[in-house]
Amino acid sequence: MKDTIKAFVFIIILIIIICVLNRVFSPVGSSEGGWYVAGAMRDMYKQDKNTIDVLYVGDSNVYTGVSPLEIYNNIGVTGFSASTPGQDAIGSYYVAKEFFKTQSPKVIMLDTGEFFTTKEFFTELSTRSEIDYMNFSFDKLDLINEDYMDFSIKEKLSFLFPVIRFHDRYQKLTEFDIRKLILQSETSYKGYLYDKKTNKYESKGKNNYQKYKEDYQKKQKGINIDNTDLHIEKYVKEKIDELKLLCNQNNCDLVLMTMPTTDERAIEKYEIFKEFANEKELKYVNFNFEIDEPINWETDTQDKGNHLNIKGAEKVGRYISKYLSENFELENKKEKPEYKKWNEALQAYNERKKEDNV
Q: Average pLDDT of each block of 10 consecutive residues along the chain (358 residues)?
């Protein structure tokens, strides 16, 4: 009996040590480049149960362009931007599955930004950001074992035990890596990563928004713009079907959205997404064509047109607020006492904007 107890205690201590090392050595949540974003995904687990009405999922355009607190400020609807760099449809599906464990969102808005992306373009940052933030569960194991991802045995083990992959980070460890073990406060504004920088996009031709509108008008008249070689990947279509089924099972509406972009092929993609949404009987909104206040790519971008800054996020927030109000019956939570934390978060958010003269 004593030997059994000793063995049991040893196993428990070993598990604790491994868990601690995994958390400390993993770059998730650290200040190293894009890894900080994956740490913001941990904020998803810190939300009070069944308090989020809208989930926004997708790639980096979501966590830089959709600010749930802007929308809450406008119409009192709660939300969370659960996005990661280069997040593909597989990652978005598992984010939603993870979210439904503690929340009952009425709407999921899925970004179309990676619908044409094949696994040849997956990076370690994008892949690990989709996985490493997750609590251990059978869903995490399913994601690691996805056929399309085709991970090796070593890679699969490293997802379960990040210290295997990042053991050489010991030279880069900082106080912040240790603090990750006890840090309980949120690191983001409901998944949104606030950025006030302005680094304008320098277009070589006419304003992109004007070009989009002109191309769209030509398309409406039956004038061919391009014989496109673009197509939505098969794995994406399969995962959208699974996500749609998941939403139906949870009484949740799935909406496709296209974030503002300087992409010269936006009109081609718009037509493809619109046709795909009709085929799948899904709502679709495109912020390049349907937003009330067009993005000013000289003032509303933080990095030369790749991502929006807070000014751009304000515009997107106003349109999403209008879209949600017109298409769904979502309750304004501002006056409800159980949403006191949200009002406090909104106050802090607005104070920061005021300090930044936004």
A: 78 76 72 67 92 96 96 98 94 96 97 92 87 90 94 92 79 70 78 94 60 58 58 94 97 97 87 94 93 90 94 97 97 95 96 94
CA distance 230 to 118: 12
Residue 153 CB neighbours (<10 A): 7
- Give the Cα-Cα-Cα angle 38, 41, 43 (nearest 5 degrees): 135
- The pLDDT, as a whole number, for residue 204 is 54
pLDDT in tens, 10-37: 778 877 777 777 777 777 766 666 666 7
CA–CA distance from 348 to each of 25, 48, 69, 188, 352 (Å)? 31, 18, 10, 12, 6
With 0-12 / 13-18 / 19 or more C-beta atoms within 10 angstroms meaning exposed / middle / buried, residue 155 is middle
pLDDT of residue 169: 77
Torsion angle of C-alpha atoms 95, 125, 267, 281, degrees rounded to 10: -20
pTM of the model: 0.88
Q: DSSP secondary structure string, 33-79?
A: TTHHHHHHHGGGGGSPTT---EEEEESHHHHHH--HHHHHHHH---E
| Helix 68-75 with 340-355: angle, nearest 10 deg | 110
Tokens representing 330 are 């979502």
Torsion sign over Cα 210, 108, 306, 201:
positive
E strand residue ranges, 215-316: 253-258, 283-286
- 3-state percent breakdown (helix, strand, coil) of the chain, nearest 5: 50, 10, 40
Q: Do the beta carbons of residue 93 and residue 49 sit within 8 Å?
A: no
Q: Superfamily assignment of 37-159+186-355 in CATH?
A: SGNH hydrolase (3.40.50.1110)
pLDDT of residue 187: 81
* Distance of alpha carbon 352 from alpha carbon 299, whole angstroms: 19
Rg of the Cα atoms in the chain = 21
